[in-house]
Amino acid sequence: MSLPQFGLLRPKSIEDAVECLASHSVRIIAGGTDLIPSMRQRLFQPEYVLDLRGIAAMRGISAQPDGGVEIGALTTLRAIERSGFLRQHFVVLAEAAATVASPVLRNMGTIGGNICLDTRCLWYNQSLTWRKGCGFCIKKDGDLCHVAPGGTKCWAAFSGDTPPALLCLNAEIEIASPAGVRRVALQDFYTGLGDNYRELKPNELVTRVFLPASSADYRGVYRKLRVRGSIDYPLAGVAVAMKRSNGHVFDARIGITAVNPAPLLVKGVNELLAGTAVDEELAEAVGDLAAKTAKPLTTSALTPEYRREMIRVLTKRAVLAAAQTVEKS
Ligand SMILES: Cc1cc2nc3c(=O)[nH]c(=O)nc-3n(C[C@H](O)[C@H](O)[C@H](O)COP(=O)(O)OP(=O)(O)OC[C@H]3O[C@@H](n4cnc5c(N)ncnc54)[C@H](O)[C@@H]3O)c2cc1C
Ligand code: SF4
User: Fold this and answer.
1) Rounded to an integer, what distance in angstroms lies between the CA atom of residue 312 and that of residue 125?
2) Is the CB of residue 124 below 6 angstroms from any atom belonging to ligand 2?
3) How confident is the model at residue 151 (pLDDT cuts 50, 70, 90)?
4) Which is nearest to 197 in space by CA: 270, 262, 281?
5) CA-to-CA distance for 57 and 73, rounded, in angstroms?
6) What DSSP string describes 246-269?
7) Atom of ligand 1 nearest to the CA of 116
8) 72 lines ligand 1 (CB under 6 A)
9) Residue-level pLDDT at 329
10) Cα(109)–Cα(298) distance, rounded to whole angstroms?
């Protein structure tokens, strides 16, 4: 499949990028590992593409004096996976990044692109001819949903690996636009809709990710279900961040992905685990909570029932693994 024609804009600074966003109708490209395949499938046919890769100020991992960290949106997933600082202090993020796609794609793919990743569906991530043959759908060019016929909502699944880990770490992101700069909690960035899945206007770009000092030194585990272990998107994913004190859980957070139109924090986890020494029964109860939060539909190659069950299983395993990791340290 060929790429549609487009004009290329290559700003060298965030200010230049914001100026381009103000004056053109553009699609942002970072690593291009999701955007280029989508453009080949004619999911997007932008007049201009804004290439962020010349903006040095958007790269890098900077430890902050207070123990937090600032990560440029253009930082590659490979750099995050290999960062000694993140492995030591924000391990759940490094673990999640290490599971994205394959080494080649992690060398190109960025954290900003992973956060902004489009939602996915069997009926959407297809060629123009394929989608035309099915009469299109609500997410693009059509007015019905093949997954939930009769409904008016798109249920395409958010399938990024790092956002559930970032949610566990109370991440915030910085967004720049011609109107200025704003900082939002990542939790408020996702809408829960499969089509308009993020709170980002066409003239805005994500510039940085912040992890607070209060989330440092949680032990973390990320587990995912995929069809091909070496390269695939998650079909269910679970991130666990846990802090313990005197052998008991002090704080625990769980994020899930690929089973809803947004990555979500599971509610009620800390109420169940705080003050306890984790055991099989408790880990199973947390797995039940996570499975209740998951609402997968037939948007991918595996059945919703299986993906939901795997959220339960992966959560239990991840909670037990996180508890063991903590015991060792
Ligand atoms: C075969 C294959 C397997 C994959 N497997 C996985 C997987 O296992 N897990 C996973 O999470 N992903 C997977 N991906 C998707 C992709 O590689 C990653 O999500 C990657 O992190 C995307 O980053 P990128 O920089 O390449 O994004 P791009 O493709 O450049 O952009 C992705 C989207 O984000 C927008 N965007 C990018 N940066 C910004 C920014 N700074 N501000 C505003 N908008 C922005 C773009 O406009 C576009 O809509 C896979 C892709 C392929 C082709
Ligand atoms: S969930 Fe429905 S509307 Fe959304 S992409 Fe899939 S088929 Fe289209």
Assistant:
1) 27
2) yes
3) confident
4) 262
5) 9
6) TTEEEEEEEEEESSSSS-EEPTTH
7) 34
8) no
9) 44
10) 27
